[in-house]
Each structure stands twice: as C-alpha cells, then as structure tokens.
Amino acid sequence: MSYPQPFVDKPQRTDVLLVSPWLAPIVWEGTFNRDILNAQYRQKNFVVGVATFAVKKYVRFIEGFLGSANKFFLSGHRVNFYLFTDHPEKVPSINLAPEKRLFIIPVQNYSRWQDISMNRMDIISNHIHSHWRYEVDYLYSMDIDVQMFEHIGVEIIDTLVGTISSWQYTKPRDSNSYERHPESRAAIPHGEGDFYYAASFYGGSVSEVYKLTTACFKGVTEDRANGIEAKWHEESHLNKYLLYHKPTRLLSPEYYWDEELIRPRIIRVKRLSSVRKDLQELERLTLLLGGLRELLVPCSSLDSLVSFFFCREAKCVL
Ligand code: UD2
Q1: Which one, of 46, 204, 203, 49, lies nearest residue 131 by Cα?
Q2: Is the Cβ atom of 116 under 6 angstroms away from ligand 1?
C-alpha cells in the first residue's frame, strides 16, 4: 500500500489537540489515513454492535438514522444494529448492506423522556451480559435523533471511547455542565474535569462498556433512592465515570455536531449531527406551555423558538 510517509517533525494538524494528557488520541479529520486503518482492522474480522433506542415519538428518526448509518457507519465492516423500540411494527424496512444486520428488540416506554434516556444504561448492561458479549467485540451506544453525513470508520474503535461534546469543547471545566452537587453520585468536585462528554455516542470493547453502563446505572439508582436526579441524567454519570476511568480514545466534536451550532473552522467535517425536532412538536409544546409564555420573551423568531424549546437549557427549565 502506498501512502505519504509520516514525519515526527510534521504534525498533521497544529490547530487542535491531538493527544490527551493521558496519551489517548483525539480523532480529527486530517489526522489519520482510513486505508491504513481499514487494512489493519480487516485482519481482525471484528463485529461491532450499535445500541440505539426509538421509543414513543422517536420512531420517526429510525429511517434517517439507519439509512445514513448503513451508508456511512463502518462501511464495509460487520455491524449489528440493536434497535430498542416500543413500536416494532413501525420500523421501516431498509435494505442494509450484506455485512450489516438489524435486530429489533421490544422495550417498554416510560412517561418521562429522562427515564427513557437514563434506563438505556441498564438495558445495555443487561443485554451485554445476556447476549452481546457472545455476539460482538465492540459496542457503541448512539442517540437515534441523528444523521450521518460522512464516513465514521474504524478510527472510532478502541477499548473505551468518549465523544467530546460540541456544546462545551472550549469551555473551562468550571463552566461545563458537570453535576457539581456533592449529594449526587454523578458529582465531580470543583476544579476537576477533563472534557465534557456527550452521552449520545460512546462505546468501546464489550467488557469496558459493560463496566461503564453498570457503574453509571448504579449511580442513577442510588441517586433515585435518595430522591436525586443528576443535572444531565445518565450523561452526568457518564462524565463522572470517564473522568476516573480515562477513555483510551476521544472522538472530536465532528462525531456529534449539534445542528444548533455554527461550525467553526477547526471542525472540518460534520460526520454525525443531531436532527432538529420539528415544528409540529413545537406547536404542541407551545400549547402545553401556555402558562410559561414569559420564558419565550427572549426568543424573537420562530427559528429561535424552535432552538429554545429543544435546547438542553429549555429542557432543564421545563
Ligand atoms: C442529551 C444527550 C442524550 C442523553 C440526554 C439525557 C447529547 C447530544 N445527547 O440529549 O444522550 O444523555 O441528554 O439528558 O449529549 N429517547 C427515545 N424516546 C424519547 C426520548 C429519548 O427513544 O421520548 C432516546 C432516543 O434514542 C434519543 C435518546 O433517548 O436519541 C436521548 O434523548 P434526547 O435526544 O431527547 O436527549 P437530548 O437531546 O437532550
């Protein structure tokens, strides 16, 4: 295979951090050669699992997720998609590539979206124990309300992998969204914190993801017993876990870009991005929240209303 020679005195990029202080690579466009990685990975013949949830109205995101993942996620490699849904009958039929398989797993729904989101950790840990440890080598958990626009390949594979949040990648640690209340099991003391990791995309070897999901759900359960819910639910617990169990590889915000944000020059590609929730949803919420109109005062246009309703800060207020 022929490719440009690497030189130690010619870094591929000088505008971004390429290695964490604990020597984990941070994956950015322009820092790797996909052909080399593919050739190395093919010799191992690994199977990668992807766990994703589409409960209640989120079934509408299945088509966009699976359609784009079929094209862009680990293209040419073996992938098992595990789709948890309370509406198996609504899963659209999608022609997957021969090396990709879809498993539809019925799951109960919860009235609160926070519970749907938080219980993912428990469900993933149980399925690793009962099935996936025999079926896949690596496992990734992904939000369903996303679409892929560029290849996400074997550069994401490592023992323990976290994605740096697109909302908070330049913020000082004390203004990040960590849970800081010491009563919560997700609490991170002031003055501590590396990066803020998004719960929308994390993964690693099956055994490491088992440890992670089991530990995070234990934290969620203990908080519940004490009448506490961490600021960003299971994401807060994930951040605590990854602070004390350092990821062996970090994905830059290219791997989860939030559509609400303007993309700066350092984010050269948008590989995966959130899908904007739609206007009908906004109308229903507007009706429901009639009494909270004063909250909307800062929002001058319909577009900013949409952003406001679906941004994390609004969810927090509600
Ligand atoms: C953030 C996190 C998300 C989770 C959540 C918890 C990012 C980008 N996303 O997302 O991973 O930590 O906060 O506060 O950091 N779901 C359903 N049905 C529902 C609600 C949720 O299936 O009614 C599933 C679905 O797979 C969805 C995921 O839970 O993708 C996360 O929910 P979200 O995307 O609404 O949460 P969001 O955007 O606040």
Answers
A1: 49
A2: yes
Nearest-CA residue for atom 30 of ligand 1: 143
Low-confidence residues of the chain, pLDDT below 70? 278-318
Separation in Å, CA 203 to CA 158, 199, 259: 8, 10, 22
* Ligand 1 site, residue 256, Cβ cutoff 6 A: yes
pLDDT of the residue at 147: 97
Return binding residues for Mn(2+). Answer: 143, 145
State how far the Cα of 214 lies from the Cα of 122, in Å rounded to an integer: 7
Asked if 228 and 286 sit in the same domain, the reply is no
Does 289 lie in the same domain as 156?
A: no
How much is the pLDDT for 123? 97
What pLDDT sits at residue 281?
Answer: 61
Q: How far is CA 41 from CA 8, 160, 305, in A?
A: 24, 17, 45
Residue in 29, 208, 234, 235 annotated catalytic: 235
pTM, two decimal places: 0.89
Ligand 1 centroid distance, CA of 301 (Å): 25
Q: Is residue 11 part of a domain?
A: no
Return the SS3 of 27. strand
My answer on whether 289 and 183 are in the same domain is: no
Domain containing residue 150 = 26-274
Q: Are residues 283 and 270 in the same domain?
A: no
Based on the domain organization, do 268 and 288 belong to the same domain? Answer: no
Same domain, 63 and 146: yes
